[in-house]
Amino acid sequence: MRLSTVDLQKRLNPEKPKGLPLVLTILIAWLAGAIFIFALAPYGFWPVALVSPAILYALLLPQMSGKRAFFIGQAYGTGLWCVGAFWLYTSIHVYGDTPVWLALIMIALMGLCMGLFHGFLALTFNRLVGKQPLSFAALWILQEWMKTWLFTGFPWLFVGYAFTEQYWLSSLAPVAGVFAVSFVAVLLAASIVELLRRRGGYLIATFALLIISTSLWLINPQWTKPKGTPDLSVSLIQGNIPQDLKWLTEYQIETLKIYATLTSTEWGRDIVLWPESSIPMFQDEAVGFINEMVKMAKETDTTWVTGIPYRDQADFDPKMDKYPPFYNSVIALGSDAEGMYKKQRLVPFGEYIPFEGMLDILPNLAGSQDIMSYSRGSDSQSPLRVRGHNLGAAVCYEVAYPDTTRKNAINTDFLLTISNDAWFGTSAGPLQHLQMVQMRALENGRWFMRATNTGVTAIIDHKGRIVKRAPQFERTVLRGDIQARVGNTPFMRFGNYPILMVIALLLLLSYLGKRATPRTRVID
């Protein structure tokens, strides 16, 4: 076959693909990521959770180099995290005494680092798999899942959380978890783009999944059932201790007085729950106060559950260690109560220093010898035993980890989470955190008690609905009743394995299909 002069010139000097300038494309991608925050609490405008990934999908569809695709995905992820997690600024600047300029740089660096997840998503979508909605949604779930474990994880800003109270879609949560909700939402978003391009064949799979989800919502299967015991009366204590005073030695006694006073009218309830580290000292430093509270609890037939730093003197060898191991813990005391839970998922640089052992070989690093970290609790801890029931626990942000909460929920009748979100002030952080607790309740079919220092303190039922909540930034008590439930949701039984197997199969098929398609050389 002979080539014409024109054909030969086209092969030797291929034209660059037509499209938007790279700078404009990156700006649009950044804005698409930034607007995602409006899909989550406190705004709750869930359609944005479809629009945001749809824009990224559309931007990645034209033929382009891998470098260009990576920059587009990186821009999207950076916008997503710089805006969606800007609540970190409060803890860094206001409570961390970091200058404004440095705090902003730290937020930007965090956004760039977390943006790498979407950067590699875009690169993989462009180079290794076919460009269609199923592969895009599968890659999206892969990067969300990786955020739960890679480099200890930062499992925030998942698409599925935008649909926590949209039961036509979140009914998938007890079946396959938040990732299944995210998968269908992103698949729907990408399919809408294809429909606008007059390529609607991909909508078949999307509609099938939506029909399944909506059917589950309408049929309303009861994955778990009431235990058959009376509901328990609970009082959740919200001390509203200012973060800048909470850990001051001279304010410790005042903190204890505040919680004791708020609780004085609650003795006689089945359960009284205090927030994370509401006793701002180690248990062996507060023995007298604890004994007094336990005495009141037993006299009034009340179970007292509190967050407290726990120092394990029994597991301390002064010849081997500088300090006894200590834990961010929850302990059940008083009437008909037993057990302690030690936090498993610690906050990097907040509760422990990564690679702390390396500091011992840096004697010139100021203060390196005085750094102390919380110890990590075991993966296999027994539930707390409360009022004849098993109670699963999660401390602070570890409730954001779907699989950790799932394991802690097994063989329990209801769940609790305690937190101190005062670190994040009036930002969206505490409300996003509450939304995650709602999703965990829905996934595991269990009621949740959530006690926090400044809010949001709430009682959440097994469908993820907020039954009662206390106002933020008020010193108050939230009273209510909780229901014990038994049985396992499919998610409790199988965890993330089903959805991970589905996305692995989709990515494999898309990869094989990509290899079977002739390649088009693209020059950027």
SSE topology sketch:
Layout lengths: L4 H8 L9 H13 L13 H13 L5 H19 L3 H7 L5 H28 L5 H14 L20 H4 L2 H4 L1 H19 L6 H17 L5 E2 L5 E7 L4 H4 L5 H12 L7 E3 L13 H13 L3 E9 L14 E9 L2 E2 L1 E3 L41 E3 L2 E7 L6 H8 L4 E6 L9 H16 L3 E5 L5 E3 L5 E4 L6 E7 L2 E2 L3 H5 L2 H19 L9
> What is the typical, i.e. mean, pLDDT?
90
Overall geometry? globular
What class would the helix/strand composition place it in?
A: alpha/beta
Number of domains: 2
CATH topology of the largest domain: Nitrilase/N-carbamoyl-D-aminoacid amidohydrolase
Can you name the CATH architecture of the largest domain? 4-Layer Sandwich
The CA-CA distance between the termini, in Å, is: 30 Å
Helix content: 40-55%
- Secondary structure tally, helices: 18
Could you state the CATH homologous superfamily of the largest domain? Carbon-nitrogen hydrolase
Poorly predicted spans: 365-369
Provide the gyration radius in Å: 26 Å
Please summarize the sheet with the most strands: 7 strands, mixed
Strand content: 5-15%
State the name of the first-level CATH class of the largest domain.
Alpha Beta
Walk across the major sheet and give the strand order. 6-8-9-10-11-12-13
Describe this structure in words.
There is one protein chain. The longest helix is centred in the N-terminal third of the chain and has 28 residues, at 100-127. This protein is α/β, with parallel strands linked by helices and 524 residues long. The model is unreliable at 365-369 (pLDDT under 50). It has two domains: 12-221 and 496-515, no CATH class; 231-488, Carbon-nitrogen hydrolase (Nitrilase/N-carbamoyl-D-aminoacid amidohydrolase). Strand 12 (458-460) and strand 13 (466-469) form a beta hairpin. The chain has helices at residues 5-12, 22-34, 48-60, 66-84, 88-94, 100-127, 133-146, 167-170, 173-176, 178-196, 203-219, 243-246, 252-263, 287-299, 402-409, 429-444, 490-494, 497-515; strands at 225-226, 232-238, 271-273, 303-311, 326-334, 337-338, 340-342, 384-386, 389-395, 414-419, 448-452, 458-460, 466-469, 476-482, 485-486. The strands form three sheets. It has a seven-stranded mixed beta sheet with strand order 6-8-9-10-11-12-13. The protein has a six-stranded mixed beta sheet with strand order 7-5-4-3-2-14. Strands 1-15 form a two-stranded antiparallel sheet. The chain is 43% helix and 14% strand. It is a multi-pass membrane protein. Residues 237-484 form the CN hydrolase domain. It is found in: Cell inner membrane; Cell membrane. Catalyzes the phospholipid dependent N-acylation of the N-terminal cysteine of apolipoprotein, the last step in lipoprotein maturation.
